[in-house]
Amino acid sequence: MKNLTEFLRKFRESQLFWPLVAWALILMFNAIVEPGFFQLGIIDDPIYGKHLYGNLIDVFKNGAPLMLVAIGMTMVIATGGVDLSVGAVIAISAAMGAVLINPALGNELITNDILTRNATNTPLPIIILADLAAGTLCGLWNGLLVSRARIQPMVATLILMVAGRGIAQLITNGQIMTIYYTPYFWFGNGYILGLPVSIYIVGLILVLAWFLVRKTSIGLFIESVGINSKASFYSGIDEKNVKLLAYAFCGFCAAIAGLILSSYVHSADGNNNGLNYELDAILAVVMGGTLMTGGRFSLVASALGALVIWTFTVTIYTLGVPANALLAAKAVLVMLVIFLYSDYSRRLMSRISERRGSSHSAAN
Amino acid sequence: MQRTKTLFWRYGPLLTTISIFVVAYFVGSRMYPAMQKPQVFFNLFINNGSLLLVSIGMTMVILTGGGGIDLSVGGVLALTTAASAALLRDGMSPMLVIPLMMLMGVAIGAVLGSIIQYFKVQPFIVTLMGLYFARGMAYIISLTSVTISDPVYKKLALTPIYIPFLSKTYVYPPTLVAPIMLLVAFLLLTFTRFGRTIYAMGNNEQSALLMGLSVARTKIAVYAFSGLCSALAGIVFSMSLLAGYGQFATGMELDAIASVVMGGTSLAGGVGNVIGTLFGVLINGTIVSILQFNGTLSSWWTRIGVGLLTLVAIGLQSLFYIRQKHS
C-alpha cells in the first residue's frame, strides 16, 4: 500500500502526469461521444498490404511529424532557446526531396509523360541523405547564430523562418511539385507489420535521443546550460557546442518531419508544408511540462504533448467541425493548458493532495 | 564632444536602421529610375499601413520585456476584417462598426494581458491562444471572403488626399491612421508615466515593482494597446481590400516581429523605440517595391531579402550594443 502511494506521488510529480491526464480526458470524451473512435480494423491495401486502420492509428500516423519536431524542439527549449524555423526547415527538406526526384531541374521544358512517370532522378538513399543534410545544416546555421554570434534565439531563428520558406520556393522554382515516385511514399503511407512506418521512425528517433540525453552526460549538460549558461561555462561545460548540438538536432528532426510530410501528401509546397508547426511544436513542449526558460526537460512528455494535440485535432474532425474552425477549438485547448499549468492551479492541486494526505494519516 | 559620442552610441542602432533603409532605397532608385518618383515613397505607407500599425503595438509589447510578445496581432486583424465585413453586410452603420471593432481589439488585448499578468503564463503561449481564437472566430463568422459594399468605406478607400508641394502625389485617408498612431505611441513612450514605466519594466520588472510603479496595470494596458493597433490595422486592411476574410494577413505577426527587430528594439525588452520600427517596416516595403519594379525576380526573393537584411541589421546593432557595454 505504501509502495503504491509512493508510486502515485512520484507519478503525479513526474512530467508525464499532465500530458497523460490531458490525453486520457480527450480519449474519455471520445469514448462517450464517438464510440467508433477506438475501433481498429484490418484492411488489405493493394499497394501497402495488410495493415491496421482506425482513428487511433491515424492519430499516430498524422501526428508523427509533429512528434518528431517536438522532440527536437524540446532539446532547444531545454537549453533556454527556441527554434522558430522548424516549419521553414520542413518546407526546405520537402522541397529538396521533390527536386531530387523530379527530372525537370530548372526551367527545362519537359513532356508530361516524363514528368509524371514513376521514376526518380536520384537514388532514394541519396535523397534521404540530402534531406537530412539540408535540415541539419539549417539547424547548424541557427546554432552558430545563437552560440557564436550570441544573437537571441528567437531573433536568430526568425531569420531562417522568414528566409527559409523563400529558400524552399527557390529550390522548387516557386512551384508546388507533385511527386510521382512511389517508393518515396513509403515513409508517410507505408506499413511495417501492420503499423505505419512513421511510428517506427518516431520510435527510433525517440530511443536515439533518449539514449543521447540519458545514457551520456549530454542531457545533463543541456539542462545545466538551460538553467544558467554562464555558470555552466565556468564549470567547464562547452556551452557553445551544447547549444550548437541542440539546434542541429532540432533541424535534423524537422528534416525527417519534412520527409514524412511530403511523402504523405505526395508533394512539396514551399508555402504550406509544415505551416504553423513551430507554434504547435512549442505548444507540445509546453504541454509536456518543459519550461520555456530552459532547464529540466522530458522528451517523452513532449512527444505525448504532440500526441495530445493530434488526438484533439482528429477528435474535432470526427465531430464534424469544419477544418478552418479547428483553430477556435485549438484556442480552447491552449486555454485549458494555461489554466492547468498556471501556478494557481498547481498550488490548488498540491493543497488538495496535502489535505488528502493529512486526512489519511488521521484515519490511520 | 563626450556628449555627442554617447548620443551616437545610444542612437547607433536607430541610425543603422535608417541608413540601411536609405541605402536600400537609394540602390533601388539607381536601378529603377521610376522609383525616384515621390509617389513610390508614399506607396510604402499606403501598402504597409496595417503592417506598421501592427508593428507599433508589437514594439510596445516587446519593450515590456520578460519574453513579452504578441502573436495574436495577425489573428485580431483578420477577425476585425471578417467581423466588420459581416456587420456592414447586415446593414450596420460604419460609424458604429469602427468604434465597435476598436473596442473589440482593446478587449481581446486586455484579456490576454490579464491572463499573462495574473496567471503568470508565458506571453508566447497566451498570445498564441489569442491568435488561434481570433482566427477561429473569423472563420466561424464566415468561411469565405465577405465583400464590403458600404458607401462610406468605399469613399474612404478611394478618395485621394494630395500631398502639398508635390505634384500628383497622394495618399488615402486610411493611410494616415498608421502615422497618427506612430505619433501617439512615440509621445506615449517618451513623455508619459505609462511610457517610462514600460521602459523600466523592460529593463527590470522586479526593480520597477519595487520602485512602486504600477507594473500590472501597465502590462495589461500595453497588450490592450496592441489589440487596439491590430483592430485599427484590420480596419485599414479591410478598407484597402474592401473585403473581410479569416485568412488575411497570415504570418503577419512574424513580419511585424522582423520589422521591430530590424528597427533596433531588443527582444529582451527595455531598449528601442517606435521610430526604429517605422524604418523596419519601410525597409520591408522597399524590398517588395524593388522586386515589383524588377518584375523578373520572383516573390520568394522578398522573404530571402527580408531575412538577409534582418541578419545585417542585427549584426550591425549588436556591434553597437557590445560597444555600449564596454564604454
Summarize the structure.
By secondary structure, chain A is mainly alpha-helical. Chain A has helices spanning 2-13, 17-33, 55-78, 86-101, 112-115, 124-147, 153-171, 182-189, 197-215, 218-227, 229-234, 239-265, 277-287, 299-318, 326-341, 343-363, and strands spanning 41-45, 49-53, 177-178, 191-192, 195-196, 267-268. Chain A has one domain.
Task: Explain what you see.
Chain A has about 375 residues and is mostly helical. Chain A has one domain (about 1-320). Chain A has helices at about 1-15, 15-35, 55-80, 85-100, 110-115, 125-145, 155-170, 180-190, 195-215, 220-225, 230-235, 240-265, 275-285, 300-320, 325-340, 345-364; strands at about 40-45, 50-55, 175-180, 190, 195, 265-270. In chain A, strand 4 and strand 5 form a beta hairpin. In chain A, helix 2 (about 15-35) runs parallel beside helix 14 (about 300-320), helix 3 (about 55-80) packs across helix 13 (about 275-285) and helix 4 packs antiparallel against helix 6 (about 125-145). The longest helix of chain A is centred in the last third of the chain and has 27 residues, at about 240-265. The mean pLDDT of chain A is about 85. Chain B is an all-alpha fold. Chain B has one domain (about 15-325): ABC transporter involved in vitamin B12 uptake, BtuC (Orthogonal Bundle), CATH 1.10.3470. Helix content of chain B is about 75%, strand content about 0%. Chain B contains 14 helices and four strands. Chain B has helices spanning about 1-10, 10-30, 40-65, 75-90, 95-120, 125-140, 150-160, 175-190, 195-205, 205-210, 215-240, 250-260, 275-295, 300-325; strands at about 145, 160, 170, 245. In chain B, the strands form two sheets. A two-stranded antiparallel ribbon of chain B has the order 1-4. A two-stranded antiparallel ribbon of chain B has the order 2-3. The radius of gyration of chain B is 20 Å and the shape is globular. The two termini of chain B are about 15 Å apart. Chains A and B meet through helix 7, helix 13 and helix 15 of A and helix 6, helix 12 and helix 14 of B.
